[in-house]
């Protein structure tokens, strides 16, 4: 609970009272502490927090160093093996990330090399996004906790920066909503730093951080929550490692910056090297030139006779209708040697799920794609989604069976 108090002399302050709160967890206290830092340093408010040391919430707040974070922002992580949690830690520069990640692993004492690899990798990638892209004046706040009885590790990272949509809009102008930004951000090679399609000029892992985290989560039956602005994405893998995803809109307000919560289980990461291998193989396919993927992108629909033109805007984001059009029109036409053009005019953004329903089986199964299928009037972001789906289709074999989220 946060209350606004009027102070003598007209100053405003924020007072957080946890007296009657019995539940605190890493994601909740990470968000709250990030907001408190922003109030204190950016809005210049006086921020205080009170709690009963005897309550569960009070003991938890003391253990994670909530008051220390507000009083002295530059904290070192103490060694506390019995707690299996880190104190709230502020990250503002790239040089702080490796030390923090190493300290987290020392403190959590997970005792499983595969899970440790996944946790450290994901933590570094999440914090790198905060430092490089968030524009947060207070940096980011992170913490981690390991629950030995269940084998669950939870990581939480939050910032009060510009948000994912603003970051992506510098290169992808059509990303005009928080919903589209969240869906687009976890595609391979999507970056607010590099121009779309400029793969040859990127560093090897540029734009792969969130994509890899999403794949690690789904392949290992974990959970990944990514929130920015008015939307929260909930991504998880079931017992078979198949991906699931839902999006929720805040009923009121939202989160000004970006936050991520990652949950991984000890008994599900059986071979982290293999997980990374699959991730890299999928990403590498998405990096290929469209010609290598048998894709023909056109600036406009050609004026040719006997050309089958599918106006995709007629069923935009309707995955059921997309699948029907694929089976009833596109696939039979290509198999008969006819030419098909998918016209994406008036569609500023197409999700991977929609592209998957419309094109995946055709790209995977047809041997005549290069000569029979063209794609016209794509925006940059839709083009990226198509390239990603084509990449998945090319590596869909009996060994990996990658499934598009």
Principal-axis shape equals: elongated
Per CATH, the superfamily of the largest domain is Histidine kinase-like ATPase, C-terminal domain
Please identify the structural class as seen in this structure: alpha/beta
Q: Main beta sheet, described?
A: 7 strands, antiparallel
Give a written overview of the molecule.
- The protein has helices at 26-41, 56-63, 66-71, 96-108, 113-133, 164-169, 178-185, 209-219, 272-287, 319-335, 352-365, 369-372, 380-394, and strands at residues 2-6, 12-17, 46-50, 89-91, 140-147, 152-159, 223-229, 231-237, 243-249, 255-265, 297-298, 307-311, 339-343, 373-376.
- The chain is α/β, with parallel strands linked by helices and 405 residues long.
- The protein folds into 2 domains: 2-287, 2-Layer Sandwich (Heat Shock Protein 90); 297-394.
- The strands form 3 sheets. The protein has a 7-stranded antiparallel beta sheet, with helices on both faces.
- The protein is elongated.
Please give a quick description of this structure.
With 405 residues, this protein is of the alpha/beta class.
């Amino acid at each position: 609970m946060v209350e606004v108090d009027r102070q003598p002399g007209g100053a405003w302050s924020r007072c957080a009272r946890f007296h009657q709160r019995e539940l605190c967890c890493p994601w909740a206290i990470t968000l709250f502490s990030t907001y408190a830092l922003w109030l204190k340093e950016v809005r210049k408010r006086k921020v205080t927090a009170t709690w009963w040391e005897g309550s569960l919430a009070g003991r938890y707040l003391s253990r994670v160093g909530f008051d220390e974070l507000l009083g002295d922002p530059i904290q070192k992580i103490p060694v506390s093996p019995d707690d299996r949690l880190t104190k709230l830690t502020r990250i503002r520069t790239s040089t702080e990330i490796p030390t923090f990640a190493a300290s987290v692993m020392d403190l959590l004492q997970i005792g499983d090399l595969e899970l440790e690899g996944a946790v450290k990798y994901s933590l570094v990638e999440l914090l790198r996004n905060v430092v490089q892209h968030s524009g947060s004046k207070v940096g980011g706040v992170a913490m981690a906790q390991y629950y030995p009885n269940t084998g669950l590790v939870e990581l939480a990272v939050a910032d009060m920066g510009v948000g994912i949509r603003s970051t992506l809009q510098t290169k992808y102008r059509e990303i005009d909503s928080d919903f589209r930004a969240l869906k687009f951000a976890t595609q391979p090679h999507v970056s607010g730093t590099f121009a779309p399609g400029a793969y040859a000029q990127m560093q090897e892992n540029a734009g792969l951080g969130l994509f890899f985290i999403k794949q690690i989560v789904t392949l290992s039956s974990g959970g990944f929550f990514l929130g920015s602005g008015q939307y929260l994405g909930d991504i998880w893998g079931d017992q078979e490692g198949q991906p699931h995803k839902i999006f929720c809109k805040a009923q009121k307000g939202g989160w000004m910056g970006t936050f991520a919560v990652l949950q991984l289980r000890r008994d599900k990461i059986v071979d982290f090297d293999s997980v990374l291998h699959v991730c890299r193989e999928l990403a590498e396919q998405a990096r290929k030139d469209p010609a290598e993927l048998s894709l023909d992108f056109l600036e406009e629909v050609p004026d040719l006779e006997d050309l089958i033109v599918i106006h995709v805007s007629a069923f935009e984001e309707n995955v059921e209708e997309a699948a029907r059009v694929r089976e009833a029109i596109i696939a039979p036409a290509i198999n008969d040697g006819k030419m098909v053009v998918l016209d994406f005019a008036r569609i500023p953004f197409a999700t991977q799920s929609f592209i998957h329903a419309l094109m995946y089986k055709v790209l995977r199964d047809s041997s005549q794609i290069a000569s029979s299928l063209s794609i016209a009037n794509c925006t940059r972001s839709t083009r990226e989604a198509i390239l990603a789906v084509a990449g998945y289709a090319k590596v869909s074999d009996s060994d990996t069976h990658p499934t598009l989220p």
